[in-house]
Amino acid sequence: MRATTAFLATTPFSMFMFEELHDLHVYCGTTIVYGGIIHTIAHLLRWADQGNMFHLLFTDRSGISGAFIIASCILICFPMMFWKTIRFELRKFTHYLFYIFVIALCFHAPASAVPNGGFAPYVFSILLLWTMLDSLYVYIYMTEKIETTVFNVLPTGIQLTMDVSDRFRKSGEQGGYCYVCFPWIDKNQWHAFSLFENPVNPRQRQIFMQKTGDWTTAVHESLTRNTNRPIWVQGPFPSPYSNSIEYDNQLLVASGIGITPALSVIRRAHQEGARRPNLVWMVRDPHMLEFFMQESYLESGRGWTLVYYTGKQPFVANENMENQNSNICVIHGRPELESVIPAIIQGIETGKGLPEQHGPSKKQQAVVELAEELVRLEMKSGELSSQEKIAHLTRHARKLGFLFTDLVSALEDVLVDEHRHRSNLVVDDGNACMGAIDEEAATVATTASSQDASVCRIYRQDSILKQLPSTASRLSSRDLMKGSKKKNKYAPPTEKDLTTGLLKKRTDPLFTPWESQEGSSEFVKQMPEIEKERWGILYCGGAKILESKLAHIAEDLDLDFHTESFAW
């Protein structure tokens, strides 16, 4: 009932819906098949004792329909017990025997048998019709053709970027999941994947499929050469991760490809700037990890991002990846979730471990970008005049949302510190760097309009920059940002050297949630109930052991826990 669920999720009835539908589905299937087997055996024994088993089994409506019911039920449920060894296509095909199961139930007991099963013809007929109409609605009105799709092929997976319709974007909340069909692979196969928004283009949705089974391997192999062939998409449908909006502080735990629904939550929180999405991601695929870090999908200024790399292949994050945001920490090994989760909560609740205190503010980030731009300009010292440099920096600062005059002081502090380290100059309270306004600045000051004073101040600060060309032209942005005190000889920087990291030495972490924090579990347990209600743990991934551990942690700390799974 995917269309029905998607509709109810947009109404007040969503407050009363059971979100863990996958667990409910498994529980109901298990109960029905074992209950059906016991029911069948009991009737067969009774009929055998009465001596009319053959007559009732093959001529009576209850016996004939019962045979179809139990046979279809076993064929639907038992292959799922061996889901790791039986192909997905076969397991899904057997689920279509559900229609035989329901039709047989409609004839299993006569309507006159009320209250002993006489309701079955009415109830199951309504449910069957409802299910068929729901499926037809999804197939016709919630399915769309994506004519042009962008594929980003990695060694172990594929990122798919697609333009979706207004209906798709407006249906429900951000994120969720969809079903995808590649007709040039198999017209009868639809596979579920979590959706996340393209941070660059809000009109686009993205999915990431890891090469794990026959179908995903076939898709991966077919994309070794560029293609623009269309695909079909059904959805979007709400997922348990939609519960993230119910919490001010979110603990997003993911394993492997389970990171994708968390990306949507992080993106939404980043846009709103109100919630704290704290991510704990366990991943062993270095290609997937590198891709998501380089594309800046994991950036979240108000939440911790702890990435635990568990792969066998060596993975070393380059400096650009490490310095994008000081809240992103790559740790080699498996996490001790029993200590990591309460440590994050304690740090935020007490204010001792607020993520934004360990990451650059918007103004600091603007200073970073201006410093990088300055290095580029100094590299072109023979091509641009001082006035052109100032004009360029002023425009660049305006694009970042600041006046250049508001950033000059912070930029001066950083450059003076670095200049001291590199050239060992004696600078007494910055006086040696200020100097008098040179002839060019004076000329500009006398001919400028109402901004004369500001321009003069900028050019006065530019006197700092004019003492740095010999040094700055030899320093890469990486060296300038690190603040190293070594007096090496530096080769001319390349464009690749211009990486972000200016604030690394200024934002050394004081609080480390990935390390054991004494008393954090007891702190969380003693929190008032009204404060605990603001926290929620959400998990997506295929590791049942990890899911069970998180459920135990959530129960121990008295926190809400939701899980998303496509464990077919």
From TrEMBL:
GO terms for molecular function: oxidoreductase activity. The chain crosses the membrane at residues 24-44, 64-83, 95-113, 119-140. Residues 476-496 are annotated as: Disordered. SUPFAM superfamilies: Ferredoxin reductase-like, C-terminal NADP-linked domain. Residues 172-228 form the FAD-binding domain. One of its GO terms (cellular component) is plasma membrane. It comes from the Eukaryota. Residues 247-320 form the Ferric reductase NAD binding domain. Signal peptide: none annotated. Keywords: Membrane, Oxidoreductase, Transmembrane, Transmembrane helix. InterPro entries: FAD-bd_8, Fe_red_NAD-bd_6, FNR_nucleotide-bd, RBOH/FRE. PANTHER family: NADPH OXIDASE, SUPEROXIDE-GENERATING NADPH OXIDASE HEAVY CHAIN SUBUNIT A. This is FAD-binding FR-type domain-containing protein. It comes from Grammatophora oceanica.
